[in-house]
Structures are given as structure tokens and as C-alpha cells.
Amino acid sequence: DQQKKVAVLSGGERNRLHLAMTLKQEANVILLDEPTNDLDVNTLRALEEALENYAGCVVVISHDRWFLDRICTHMIAFEGDSQVRFFEGSYSEYEENKIKRMGDAGPTRLRYKKLIHD
Q1: Is 33 within 8 Å of 61 (Cβ atoms)?
Q2: 71 neighbors 36 (Cβ within 8 angstroms)
Q3: What gap in Å lies between CA 58 and CA 51, rounded to an integer?
Q4: How confident is the model over 48-81, as pLDDT tens digits?
């Protein structure tokens, strides 16, 4: 309902309102902390489209790897041992690069022993 007062909006509705207002301001830099939390599919798509067409710089902090892969063109990654890496490319490309760089120290699949019931 577009006529609702802000005071009666749910937390998710209020977050979507603030996100829309931020994107409309056309600032040079936007900082987004976990922007996909509490978004429905339509709002998520609208956010992705808005960010794809945004002329400024967007800094996104997110655990949503699928979202990062769709919108990121450059990454600043904070890795182990206080390493900060700049990477040009998508999130998937960054992950592939990281696995290659790590070599044998890279992530491996864990294997668990089956539990034995007595």
C-alpha cells in the first residue's frame, strides 16, 4: 500500500523505502551493508537493475554470493592473515583465482566417518 505512513511500515518495508530513497539521491558513492536481507524477489531484481545502471561507486558488504556475482565488477577481499586483495572481475572469477593462488592449501571437501550405533 503506497499510502501507508512510514511509522506503520514493517521492518522489511522500511528497509526497502530507505534503499529506494538512497538510490534516488544519485550520490557518487553508496555503501550497502547486507542489502539483500529482507528483500522479496521483485525488489531484489529492481535493486540489481538500479545498481547495474548506477554511474557512481557502490561498496557492498554481503554474504549473498549469488548477488555479488551478478553485480560486482571489482572486489576488495579481506582474506586470512590480514591480507587485503583487489581483484577485477566477478565474484566467481575471484573464487577461481583464490583457489588457484592457494594451491594445496586451498579448500577441500571434508569427509566424515560414518557413525556406528551399538
Answers
A1: yes
A2: no
A3: 8
A4: 998 988 888 999 999 999 999 999 999 999 988 8
